[in-house]
Amino acid sequence: MSARIIAAIVLAGSVALGCGSPDPVNQTHQGRLEESDPRLEQDNSLYDEYKFRAAEGWNITVAMNSGEFDTYLHLVDPDGNTISQNDDIAAGNTNSQITMAAPKGGEYTVIANSLSQGETGAYTLTITAQPGQ
What we know:
By secondary structure, this protein is mostly beta strands. The longest helix is centred in the N-terminal third of the chain and has 16 residues, at 3-18. It is built from one helix and eight strands. The chain has one helix at 3-18; strands spanning 25-33, 47-54, 59-65, 71-76, 82-86, 96-101, 106-114, 121-130. It has one domain (22-130): Jelly Rolls (Sandwich), CATH 2.60.120. The chain has a four-stranded antiparallel beta sheet, with no helix packed on it. 12% of the residues lie in helices and 45% in strands.
């Protein structure tokens, strides 16, 4: 077999493998907002970023819990657009949660944030993304 044919087979195999669905996501992060973290331009509040991959139509759930500050979540799509935000899960509950179907496949970004500038402290962030039922 010639080198060109072998290279074409290897390239075609690599492309085919790269086209598959991402693995389901089930992540838990123990984080901490600190004065040294980056700040959002909109309100100067501290944040951390987490990335994950999801296929179009997958169910995404992101939850952020803290006993030390009022949490705030942003979900950013693969094009860099904020597609969902959440402050409080319910009245009187300052934890945050986003649940939605992925509008497209690709890499999503979670911005784990505080409601107000200067809020610091520990938090737990969970991210799940999996095919719809």
